[in-house]
From TrEMBL:
Pfam families: TusA. Belongs to the sulfur carrier protein TusA family. InterPro entries: TusA-like (IPR001455), TusA-like_sf (IPR036868). This is UPF0033 domain-containing protein. It comes from Sinorhizobium fredii (strain NBRC 101917 / NGR234). Gene3D superfamilies: TusA-like domain.
Length: 78
């Protein structure tokens, strides 16, 4: 079975609150149930992104540390 397509959104280099604000804006343009992968270097994203998902009803499917920051996999609410 092929891997599900995901949108990759590079927000590296942006500081709080820009990663969440830009993610929220981008989520408005994608289909319900779609996957979006967020790349960020903002250390506060580990708090802000899960909070954003919880507040807006999206599902945080994965959160991982990377060499340069963090990667989040979010499924847009249906």
């Amino acid at each position: 079975m092929p891997a599900e397509e995901r949108i990759v959104y590079d927000l590296r280099g942006l500081k709080c609150p820009l990663p969440v604000l830009k993610t929220r804006k981008r989520m408005e343009t994608i289909a319900p149930g779609a996957l979006i992968e967020i790349e960020t270097t903002d250390p506060l994203a580990v708090i802000d992104i899960p909070h954003f998902c919880n507040e807006d009803g999206h599902r945080l499917e994965q959160a991982a540390s990377t060499a340069a920051g963090h990667r989040f996999l979010i499924r847009k609410k249906v």
